[in-house]
């Protein structure tokens, strides 16, 4: 929640959300004495925000957001692979930042500000004249889970999903308009 609030300049905090987990999970290992969780196997009465699922063919064990409503519109669902939760490939701080980024994409209707390897629609690099350059909104964006800072120059010509879906507005600009 603290990372989502930081990304969204305190506009969004996580208070309540729905998570769909596999039926075979033992809920008793999820609760502790200081935390109260409502758990049920019943179908949720409201739409699910996060689903614990399988790895994605492209993103692997990284969480991903299904966004089908366009720029500035809430996404459909966040897929949180079980392996992301169980494997120790990143520390919990980095995992929290990654999940906060996906929540921000889901909640605010923003997209990746970097291209993807082997993706023809949103390539990792593009040519400008005789020069090949990385497809990213900003040079300071060193980690895939970070959005471009609002106070840094933003490359509106880069063919990122954010630029193409949001008419060259940065994620920070779309979030600020909400």
Describe the model.
The protein has 178 residues and is an alpha/beta fold. 22% of the residues lie in helices and 12% in strands. The protein has five helices and six strands, in the order αββββααββαα. It has helices at 2-7, 82-86, 92-108, 161-165, 171-177; strands at 19-20, 50-53, 64-66, 77-81, 125-128, 131-134. The strands form two sheets. Strands 1-2-4-3 form a four-stranded mixed β-sheet. The chain has a two-stranded antiparallel sheet with strand order 5-6. The longest helix has 17 residues, at 92-108. The chain is globular. The two termini are 18 Å apart. The model has no long low-confidence stretch (mean pLDDT 80).
Number of DSSP E strands: 6
Straight-line N-to-C gap:
18 Å
> What value does the Rg take, in angstroms?
17 Å
Q: Roughly what percent helix? A: 10-25%
What is the tally of helical segments?
5
What's a concise summary of this model?
The protein has 5 helices and 6 strands; from the N terminus they run H-E-E-E-E-H-H-E-E-H-H. The chain has about 180 residues and is an alpha/beta fold.
How would you summarize the topology of this molecule?
Blueprint: H1 2-7, E1 19-20, E2 50-53, E3 64-66, E4 77-81, H2 82-86, H3 92-108, E5 125-128, E6 131-134, H4 161-165, H5 171-177
Parallel strand pairs: 1-2, 2-4
Antiparallel strand pairs: 3-4, 5-6
Could you list some keywords that capture this structure?
globular; single chain; two-stranded antiparallel sheet; 4-stranded mixed beta sheet; alpha/beta; 22% helix; 12% strand; 178 residues
